[in-house]
């Protein structure tokens, strides 16, 4: 059973239907959205409302943010407050496990980790400087809490967060942070990933669903990710939002047409 079964919108509570975000066509007609698969992809053109929806969903479901700010403190989410306030979440199995990740926020997460490491190392230096006359055994005891935290962070994210590529950091984050039975919201996770790394992400998602009964709601433009076996694909280009077969998504059909006849597209650029 999916943790989240359905999102319902209390349209009677909308005070300004012609203002953002309710004027967006996909959201204007939205009354309810049912999740029928452990992996649901939200697809559509830029500006179709899918990112707005998942941002409000992350806030309403109280997900932990993997960016530089907690969800309830992130001022960049203020624009979705009207939608979040009229969302009702129908849980099949409520869970506090999981997180919300926007691809553009991941640098903020890495920087926050680096800052935390630097602060812990500074504390160790301070203790050793202020108590330099103490025996090494006592110094080590006083520094032990900071040393333990550093070891835990490095075990989770690597000795040096900058030693890996952005894509490698991204995948490592998933492998380290996925918990069984979690509910995860991802916005364009393919952004830092090569096609091969996107396949690796698909494998990680598949393992999490099979072994951990986890659920994912993902905004994407990637035909590779959309091909996840058994995934539900919801099109925000239609109003109301509706399921769409993989082969009928614009992302897949356009990519296929381009790869079959690139010259037909490129000649218009010359």
Strand adjacency order, main sheet: 4-6-7-8-3-9-10
Unreliable residue stretches: none
And the CATH topology of the largest domain?
Rossmann fold
Helix/strand order: EHEEHEHEEHHHEHEHEEHH
Quick one: how many beta strands? Answer: 10
Helix content: 40-55%
Tell me the domain tally: 2
How many strands, which pairing sense, and closed or not: the largest β-sheet? 7 strands, mixed
Compute the average pLDDT: 86
Name the overall outline. Answer: globular
- Give the termini distance in whole angstroms: 53 Å
Briefly, what CATH class of the largest domain?
Alpha Beta
Explain this structure.
The chain is built from ten helices and ten strands. The longest helix has 25 residues, at 106-130. The mean pLDDT is 86. A hairpin with a 6-residue loop joins strand 9 and strand 10 (242-243). The chain has 270 residues and is an alpha/beta fold. Helix 4 (106-130) runs antiparallel to helix 5 (136-157) and helix 6 (166-177) runs parallel beside helix 7. Helices cover 43% and strands 15% of the residues. It has two domains: 4-105 and 184-245, Rossmann fold (3-Layer(aba) Sandwich), CATH 3.40.50; 108-162, no CATH class.
Could you outline the blueprint of secondary structure elements for this entry?
Elements: E1 4-9, H1 25-28, E2 32-34, E3 39-43, H2 50-60, E4 64-65, H3 81-85, E5 87-91, E6 99-102, H4 106-130, H5 136-157, H6 166-177, E7 183-187, H7 195-212, E8 215-219, H8 223-226, E9 232-235, E10 242-243, H9 250-260, H10 262-266
Parallel strand pairs: 3-8, 3-9, 4-6, 6-7, 7-8
Antiparallel strand pairs: 1-2, 1-5, 9-10
């Amino acid at each position: 059973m999916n943790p989240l079964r359905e999102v319902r919108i209390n349209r009677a509570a909308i005070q300004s239907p012609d203002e953002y975000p309710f004027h967006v066509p996909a959201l204007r007609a939205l009354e309810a959205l049912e999740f029928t698969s452990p992996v649901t992809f939200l697809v559509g053109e830029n500006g179709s409302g899918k990112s707005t929806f998942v941002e409000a969903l992350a806030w309403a479901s109280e997900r932990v943010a993997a960016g530089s700010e907690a969800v309830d403190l992130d001022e960049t989410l203020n624009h979705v407050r009207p939608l979040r306030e009229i969302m009702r979440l129908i849980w099949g199995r409520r869970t506090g496990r999981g997180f919300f990740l926007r691809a553009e926020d991941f640098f903020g997460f890495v920087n926050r980790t680096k800052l935390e490491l630097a602060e812990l190392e500074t504390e160790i230096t301070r203790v050793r400087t202020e108590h330099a006359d103490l025996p090494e055994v006592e110094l080590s005891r006083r520094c032990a809490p900071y040393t333990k935290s550093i070891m835990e962070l490095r075990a989770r994210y690597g000795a040096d967060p900058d030693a890996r590529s952005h894509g490698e950091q991204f995948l490592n984050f998933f492998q380290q942070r996925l918990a069984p039975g979690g509910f995860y919201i991802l916005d364009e996770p393919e952004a830092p990933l090569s096609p091969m790394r996107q396949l690796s992400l698909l494998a990680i998602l598949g393992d999490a669903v099979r072994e951990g009964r986890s659920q994912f709601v993902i905004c994407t433009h990637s035909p590779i990710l959309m091909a996840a076996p058994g995934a539900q694909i919801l099109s925000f280009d239609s109003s109301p939002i509706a399921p769409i077969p993989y082969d009928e998504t614009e992302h897949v059909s356009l990519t296929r047409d381009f790869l079959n006849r690139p010259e037909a597209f490129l000649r218009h650029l010359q």
